[in-house]
Amino acid sequence: MVRVIPTEETERPRTVDEHRAEVIRLLGTRPAVELPLADCASLVLADDVRAGVSLPPFDNSAMDGYAVRSVDVVEASGEVPVELPVAEDIPAGRTDIPALLPGSAHRIMTGAPMPPGADSVVMVEHTDGGTDKVRVFRAAAPGAHIRRTGEDVAAGTIALGAGTVLGPAQLGLASAVGLDRLAVHAPPRVLVVSTGTELVLPPQELRHGQIYESNSVMLVAALRGMGCHVESVRSVADDVPAFRAAIEPKLPETDLVVTSGGVSAGAYEVVKDALTGAGVRFAKVAMQPGGPQGCGTWDGVPVVTLPGNPVSVLVSFEAFLRPAVLAALGHTHLDRRHVRAQLTETLASPRGKRQFRRGYYTSSEGQVTGVVGPRGGPGSHLLAAFTQANCLIVLPEDVTEAAAGSEVDVLLI
Ligand code: AMP
Ligand code: MG
């Protein structure tokens, strides 16, 4: 079989940053959609949220105790307590709040509205806890233990700004100001496709020459972890009609297709054969692992084509897909946290390529830089070593050797 080498392969390789920028551009930013709060966790707010109510919505007690007029207990002490009649009981949730008359107290619980006329709360611990009459052992300053209307959020102000990442506190605040839905950047529906005639799904039995499929498992986990809705086609043979038939019917319900395998320079490169000239551009990226990459659109749907080796898949996810999906979801911070660390052993890296090695980073208390050692060799099939890694060691394009003891850049994954 004769293959025409596409012109891309004779071009200068793309840099990691160029390909990353192209994948980010391809995915764009997802439109806003309103979702129930429970479905918004870790998504990004698409619009400002204005508070419809103040927080707290009314002056209320910060303590279990007694609402009083501070002038009535100004003389109170352990030796000479002040005794006041308890006129009312105000548990949290009571909505009809009688005013406090001079010379009396209302028993009040945390979160209950302050009665008109009271300017202070005496903690129950500073009283005898009486229900008909109460003996107060300490003076209370005016305003003591009162949570004021709007001291957390004032009604009408922006409680959460567009672009906010919705974690537990942000979702709690949205509910506290009275919302049950939020406008977020819609999570994309992603179709993950593994190609390779050799792929078999566990628990089927392997024949010699076959392997168990693992790329889709990793990509599904990684993408679901980011909030995407993910479906997978776990094993498509290296056959263009079969590939098209498996994917094309699903395109209308898909926002992003991610394939693995079938994009390098051999024969039977099903993804390349099916999509070259159909809107997807294939390129060599100057990186190791993960050189053969592609991206574009298929019937208008963004497609990112990753190489087949499992380590290449995960490194490509980190380098390209993760930042692009974050940007699509409305995040502005797209990078993993990275630190400098001292190498425990000498590493070689190919000239002209950015190398991503699996590593284990440790930082010790009080030390500015931590220490990092490789886990496994550079081979892109060494998945077991990846499971022992907590970082990627990044060796830049112009580095061919990083000596033991030298400082390297480490991405914490
Ligand atoms: P390819 O780029 O299709 O030539 O694949 C490169 C290598 O990755 C081959 O050894 C494949 O068997 C392996 N590979 C491809 N896809 C998968 C997959 N989904 N799960 C595990 N290994 C794979
Ligand atoms: Mg293949």
Key features of this structure:
413 residues, alpha/beta, Molybdenum Cofactor Biosythetic Enzyme, Chain A, Molybdopterin biosynthesis moea protein, domain 2, Molybdopterin biosynthesis moeA protein, domain 3, six-stranded mixed sheet, five-stranded mixed sheet, 7 helices, 27 strands, binds adenosine monophosphate, binds magnesium ion
Describe the structure.
The chain has 413 residues and is of the alpha/beta class. The chain folds into 4 domains: 16-30 and 187-328, MoaB/Mog-like domain (Molybdenum Cofactor Biosythetic Enzyme, Chain A), CATH 3.40.980; 34-55 and 151-185, Molybdopterin biosynthesis moea protein, domain 2, CATH 3.90.105; 60-147, Molybdopterin biosynthesis moeA protein, domain 3, CATH 2.170.190.11; 338-412, Beta Barrel (Beta-clip), CATH 2.40.340.10. The chain has helices spanning 16-27, 168-176, 215-225, 240-247, 270-275, 310-328, 383-386; strands at 32-36, 49-50, 60-61, 65-68, 82-90, 105-108, 120-123, 133-136, 146-147, 158-160, 181-185, 189-195, 199-200, 211-212, 229-236, 256-260, 280-284, 287-288, 292-298, 301-306, 338-343, 347-348, 354-362, 370-374, 391-395, 401-402, 407-412. A 6-stranded mixed β-sheet has the order 15-12-16-20-19-17, with helices on both faces. The protein is elongated and about 95 Å long. Residues 1-9 have low confidence and may be disordered. Adenosine monophosphate (AMP) binds at residues 194, 196, 198-199, 211, 213-216, 260-262, 264, 307-310.
